[in-house]
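Suppose you are handed only these lines of text.
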Amino acid sequence: MIDLYFAPTPNGWKITIMLEECGLPYHLIPLNIAAGEQFEDNFLAISPNARMPAIVDPEGEDGAVHLFESAAILIYLAEKSQQFMPQDQAGFYSVTQWLFWQMANLGPMAGQLSHFINYAPEGNDYSKTRYRNEYDRLLGVMNFQLGKNTYLAGEFYSIADMACFPWLLPYKHYGFDLAAFPHLRRWFDQLKQRPQLRKGVDIGKDWRPAASPDNDSRAILFNQTSAIYKDK
Ligand SMILES: N[C@@H](CCC(=O)N[C@@H](CS)C(=O)NCC(=O)O)C(=O)O
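From them, the structure of the protein bound to glutathione can be written out as follows.
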């Protein structure tokens, strides 16, 4: 069975969506990132970047597979299950480019926007405007693409859609309204109808702390430097 190191965030939900969609059994290992569990040696051996999600599949083709980075995990699960990644060259690279787009654009920009909205309420207008504009631009990119195709990579639901969907969930919290993005709204509503996807994004919802991180957790989460690796 696949071990999934998980915290309830968009990057974690990409993987629970895919595992639910493709029906592979998995064992959830909750990681309390606000308490610094991502820096423990056993986790760094799997995920040297000290970030979740990560998986261990004891049943890889040549033995156990250890993987970090959510897109690498999605590609692995698609290959293992033979689902949600087309095998023809055009389809394969269409999904690959949208998956890379999510990893290089939507995830990092929405992550920074979320940081400044949630954790720097006292100021940083420049940063908030910068990342709000980027999130807005990226919603525009998706809306443009989804005006031409049913799904991001074409006419088939794929791991690219699963990677992007969780980053749309907080749009209201970020101050956005999908009415301005009708094709994106259509896609978002369509995906929300999928029972497996809904099950995936519900995992761990009730573990999320109601309050903002306290000072100890802020020090763990927001003051990270290379010193983490000094005595490793
Ligand atoms: N590019 C990575 C990003 C992973 C990531 O940033 N994970 C966050 C949670 S969403 C994390 O583990 N944070 C721990 C920390 O900030 O210390 C991926 O897609 O897997």
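What can we learn from it? The chain has two domains: 2-83+207-229, 89-193. The chain has a mean pLDDT of 95.
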